[in-house]
Amino acid sequence: MTKRRSQHWYGKHDKDGFIHRSWMKNQGFPDHVFDGRPIIGICNTWSELTPCNSGLRDLAEAVKRGVWEAGGFPVEFPVMSLGETQMKPTAMLFRNLLSMDVEESIRAYGIDGVVLLGGCDKTTPGQLMGAASVDLPAIVVSSGPMLNGKWQGRDIGSGTDVWKFSESVRAGDMSLQDFMAAESGMSRSKGVCMTMGTASTMASLVEAMGMALPTNAALPAVDARRGALAHLTGRRIVEMVEEDLKPSDILTRGAFENAILANAAVGGSTNAVMHLLALAGRVGFALTLADFEIGSEIPLLVNCMPSGKYLMEDFCYAGGMPVVLQELGHRLRPARTVLGGDISAYAAGATCFNRDVIHSYDSPVKPAAGLRVLRGNLAPNGAIVKPSAATDALLEHEGEAYVFETIEDLKANIDRHDLPVTPDTILVLKGCGPRGYPGMPEVGNMPIPARLVQQGVRDMIRISDARMSGTAFGTVILHVSPEAEAGGPLALVRTGDRIRVSAREGVLELLVDAAELATRRAAWQPTPPHYTRGYARLYIDHVLQADRGADLDFLVGKDTRLVTRESH
After folding, report:
1. Phi, psi at 138, each rounded to 5°
2. What is the pTM of this model?
3. Which CATH number fits domain 37-148+188-347: 3.30.450.20, 1.10.10.10, 3.40.1000.10, 3.40.50.2300?
4. Helices (H), 121-223
5. Which of 165-169, 225-229, 303-307 has the highest mean pLDDT?
């Protein structure tokens, strides 16, 4: 049998082996657990500051039971936790830092495989990026969605209804008392957003890519079956080590294309684009925005907020991702999974129990609802829009821009009653890209100006180099690349300029002649960075643009070499 990686730590009968084993024994581990069995790391993003991941301690214990049962030796370790709703300036600033934490922890410790416990938006991609960069056998267990929100006898969804309630308060249609009462009913259990936000999107795509066991995406966080799934995952990772089944065997181009198709079918978050691009860079092949166009003709099958009316608990009870994969059928690319076989096995025998929640391919919620990639002189490297969450009539539009130079400018002026805007105006926000904020925050779904909200307007075109929450909705054009702070054409837009948008043609054009743009460019100056030290400074200096996933340039690719130098 090939010597396991962990045996370079625990299998030696010398001073180094003595030190590695002896210090582990102070936790009560007996001699025989160092007998060459697989040592499985449990990479845990549990934190009380990340409410979405607050149930991961219990799941870690379930994973351990499965590892022990299969003859492995489980060891849990913490990594940075990214609380999407809690961190400033944005959790996305720290996704790459988490990936470094995961990568270096896996590389530095004597483990043979790893179970990734995450949930909140950036934790899943950050963990996957780190694990793919080392390429040891790895598998994901997601924390799972919260139970449906409840308020005044009806279901409410985290994020999606927050935006709606907030606009209703601004319009005078909802009292502040009701707004505050809804707050307590929104989040009723541990888990991630129960809408098809970024967290549930990434859990769904991890399942569609074959990096988690079937049903991982939708089982509620507090459902006992998620604990059982974690137990089974612990068993399976031991087998994966025996089989030497690694992320590079699973995360092939076929797997990424399946994720793109699945994202369209579930009405998934625009943030998935950023994370898939970055993950592909770690695996070692070039995924581009053009590849996402394969999902543009896939219909919306899952009737969940923000693109529909139901929530993740309903999605689970209707059959979850296995039903979606079954509906995608022959459109799925052949791709290996953590179970060793093809992704088609995940759909075998799936049954839909509620066709109003998961529609059939031939009778979808919406036709051709996948993300659209837009290009033109305003976004030479691309931008994206989510038609399933947009107003159809606005997807083909030309209008005058009203420009906010910074997020502070937006907040100070969006509710001015003399703001010169109409429902046809196109709102433009600059300075919110990877470098500019820094970290590319979820502010692209700008509020509708107060004077228009009071007239009943609930959507208008908004364009920025920012992202938006997966729980958000509206005709929002995001990830404009290059960003304004990198000198992209977005930096040159002025109030009154005309802009043309065509989702059908994939066009985003600034209707200003080239000579005028050249004059503006000559006068443009970047703003001084907001941060001058620490990780944020490193990030600003090395972050790639949105069309490359906003990874750090020196993290692209992987390093699978064994560390041989000892510290003692």
Report:
1. -145, 150
2. 0.95
3. 3.40.50.2300
4. 123-134, 160-171, 176-186, 198-208
5. 225-229
